[in-house]
Design goal:
The chain is elongated. A 3-stranded mixed beta sheet has the order 1-3-2. By secondary structure, it is mainly α. It contains 7 helices and 3 strands. It is 76% helix and 6% strand. The relative contact order is 0.15. It starts with a helix and ends with a helix.
Length: 223
């Protein structure tokens, strides 16, 4: 059973990542009719939402795009920042969606920011506890590891509506501002939905990990 669960988790993780990478590589080569770069798309949407104080900067890395709420900066990878493709516009608009959430005090985003430092600590401590528990056969330490995984699952579950909402905002803004035409928007939707699957995969993997630990805990308890 342990091997089956690990195999399923690996397949889900690599499957989701493969799907995202495939769509990104496909749509980064599809140029938009207007030819707007990711930076220009981000700037237009931000300005239309009166977010002139939010900056858009370029960062290194592959799909390293994110919104930094503490500094109020949308950071776009070089390909997205300079690219004028479906993928670049979609990703840029999605990250701006998080900036808009921040402005509107989106509840899920506020709660995630509140618990992030605690979850960050728990994630490292939890893996260490699981390792020690399995190494020494300690049920108490394994139970701590299970509790940590449940907290991580809560964090990942909260992240899902945040990401889906940001994608919804991105699609609406790209449409309302006529930054993409109808055919381009259809491709944009595929790109945004594929990216969201990585978060769904993370939730499923954590559930599988908790189930696996519960099996180990149950088997150890019967010995």
């Amino acid at each position: 059973m342990d091997i089956i669960i690990l195999t399923i988790a690996i397949v889900i993780t690599f499957g989701a990542q493969f799907y995202v990478t495939t769509n990104y590589n496909k749509y980064k080569s599809v140029k938009t009719k207007k030819g707007l770069t990711g930076f220009e798309v981000a700037r237009i949407i931000l300005d239309n939402h009166n977010l002139n104080d939010v900056y858009v900067t370029e960062i290194k890395g592959y799909l390293s795009d994110h919104y930094d709420a503490s500094r109020r900066v949308v950071r776009l990878s070089s390909e997205v920042f300079h690219g004028n493709s479906i993928a670049s516009c979609s990703i840029a608009a999605h990250e701006v969606g998080h900036a808009i959430q921040d402005k509107e005090n989106f509840k899920f985003m506020q709660f995630r920011s509140l618990i992030f430092p605690y979850v960050s600590f728990v994630s490292y401590f939890g893996y260490f506890a699981i390792l020690l528990g399995l190494l020494f056969g300690s049920l108490q330490i394994i139970s701590i590891g299970i509790s940590s995984e449940i907290i991580i699952l809560l964090f990942q579950t909260i992240t899902l509506p945040i990401e889906y909402d940001a994608s919804k905002r991105a699609f609406n803004d790209l449409s309302i501002n006529s930054l993409l035409n109808k055919k381009e928007l259809e491709k944009c939707k595929v790109m945004l939905n594929s990216a969201a699957l990585t978060y769904v995969a993370s939730v499923i993997n954590t559930i599988l990990q908790i189930f696996r630990l519960l099996l180990i805990f149950g088997n150890s308890k019967r010995k």
